[in-house]
Every structure is written in C-alpha cells, then in structure tokens.
Known about the structure:
Keywords: DNA-binding, Repressor, Transcription, Transcription regulation. It comes from Rouxiella silvae. The chain has helices at 3-15, 18-25, 29-43, 59-86, 105-117, 130-138, 202-214, 231-236, 281-290; strands at residues 48-51, 54-57, 91-97, 121-127, 144-149, 158-172, 192-195, 220-224, 242-245, 256-260, 267-274. With 295 residues, the protein is an alpha/beta fold. It has three domains: 3-86, Winged helix-like DNA-binding domain superfamily/Winged helix DNA-binding domain (Arc Repressor Mutant, subunit A); 91-162 and 270-290, Periplasmic binding protein-like II (D-Maltodextrin-Binding Protein, domain 2, 3-Layer(aba) Sandwich); 164-268, Periplasmic binding protein-like II (D-Maltodextrin-Binding Protein, domain 2, 3-Layer(aba) Sandwich). The chain is rod-shaped. The model has no long low-confidence stretch (mean pLDDT 86).
Amino acid sequence: MELRHLRYFVAVAETTNFTRAAERLGISQPPLSQQIQRLEHEVGTTLLKRLTRGVELTEAGKVLYEDALIILKLSDAALERTRSVARGMNGFLRIGFASSSAFNPQVFSLLHHYRDKYPGVKLEPQEKDMSGLMTALSEGVIDLAFIRLPCERSKDFNVRVIDNEEMVIALPKMHPLSRGESVALSELRNETLITFPRELSPGLYDAVIAACVEAGFTPKLGQQCPQIASSLSMVATGFGYALLPASLSKINADNVRCLPIAGQTITTQVALAWRRTSQGKSAKHLLNMVSPGLE
C-alpha cells in the first residue's frame, strides 16, 4: 500500500465524489478511479459504495479512512521534522568544553544567542580535558569544541579564536596582598602555587609556569586540583594562590579575592575547533555566528 493511494482514498472519502476529488488532487478522474480500484484489490474488500451522484464509505472504508488520516498525519510530520533537521532548525548539536572555557563570557553569549535563534536544536554539552576533547572531536563523538590555546593537537582541526582572556591572581581574602588593587607575581615567590594536572589544559598550565619564570622565580608547587575551577576552593581554604582565567573569578567562592597581575599582562586564548570535513547544518549555523561563511 502506497501513501499516494491513501491520499487519493481520503480525498474521495472527504469529497464523496470522484470528480471533485480529482480536481482537489490535480489529476484526471479515470486514473483516480483506477488507483482506488487497485487499493480495494490490495485490501481485498470494497471501500466505497458507488452511488448515482457520488460515493459513500463502506464499514471497511470507514475504518481505513480513520487510520489513513493518522498515517498521513504522521507521514507529513516525519517529513517536516526531517526537512527541519536538514535545515539545521531541529536535531542536536554535541559541544565539547575544556574545563574552564564554559565560564568564558564570549562562549556563554554565543551559545545563548544560538539557543534563542535555533530553539529546536538540542545542545548536548560534554566537558573533558584537552586531550579528551581532541580525541572526541577526531572520532566524531562531538561536533565542535571550545578549547584553550595553545594546544598541539588543535593543528589537526579548523580553529577560530573567539576571545583573548586575561589571567588574574586568586588569593585568600585573609592574605595581606589581597587588600590591594593588584598584585605582582614577584611578591608571591615564597608562596605556594596551586595548580591542576597539566593534561587538563597543557597550554594554560605552561602559561602559568612561564609567567612565574618571567617574574623572576620558579614557583613552589603545592597540591594539584582535579579541575581548574576547583583551584578556587583550595585558595579559599588557604593552601596558596592560583593563576586563573578572569572568567573564573565570576564563580562565587567565599574567602577568595581575584586581582589583576601588576606589571604583566598574561592572556589565554579561547577558541572554537571543528573537523575539516563537512559539518551538519546545526553546526554550520553556530560557525556562521562566529564568522559568516566560516564552515
């Protein structure tokens, strides 16, 4: 049984007339009559009573008519959903985040704008370390990734920088240096630096160590935190200080004060990475928000 046969049958059932049904369908009457006869032959019973001035449904025809309406409605809905996904208006978008990039205001603003413009697309966020992000992107587990540069493996992908974010120093509020408007790294040469495992974000880790060396000392490393953002908790409890992207200072951490770095400007880049192969429409829409024609 073909969908077109059901459409023909419904048209005849609703108009109760082959001529009017043919006009509604935009076909001539003889082919319509033949298609209805084929449908009746396939079903194995008469669906329409042929009357002098039209037709009416048989008992079997009434049952098929009710089911045909449901089938055609589902078919039309499936077709529209498929077209909507193909246009990038529906479906899903799998987005990876480095552990600290999700706090970046440019990332937040971009995703907020995307959600407003394409509410039918379901965003599926995944947070991973940089190595995990690059592997997931390479294997197609995620469609796009917000990463921090530099990242050696990012050379395998298309990458667009979306923000240059300054680093700040996070100090316990009880620390004497936290009372100023800024603090020089050299003033912390004898303090303990709280870090995170380098594999979480190699570029960010190296930038932190390099900044200390540039300030004239090798940092005294303390306990490592499992995530970059959790460094704030260690600072709050007095274990030492941390160098963090400025966006992380927006996290509500009691007993912590984040200050600009005096005498040095240290930045970390937040970038969007994607595979060099063809992208789905939902991913292309996000890329076009970063830069028209970027995909």
